[in-house]
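Hi there, hope your week has been kind to you so far. Thanks so much in advance, here it is:
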Amino acid sequence: MTSHARGTLTHESWEEHPVREWDGGGRIARAVVTWRCHGDIEGVWTQVTLTAHPDERSSSFCGLDHVEGRLGGRSGGFVLRAAGEWDGESVRGTWSVVPGSGTGELAGLRGEGTFTALDPTTMAYTLDYDLT
């Protein structure tokens, strides 16, 4: 039976370093971001992302996110594979649980969801998941 998690992520830290820059202001960067989870997921969310900025007004990114805390009353951790875009005003994207990444009481976790920026420091998330 599929369960539905919803809540927010509050930004705690952001560290970004250019990997490659080119004429015209474009760059690829690597970022490590820490979030605090609120709602149906409670805990710490650490994101490692590669971001392509073709200019200063947009980006496309992909990465892996490690979540440690509680989901659906169970403790443990898991990894999400994420992809999204920033259009200069809003961030939105999707993610899915990396198979086999669940630990503790979250072993066997499967699922996918979405995220959307509410403001520069807060994201709304969803995760539709199953625990086997």
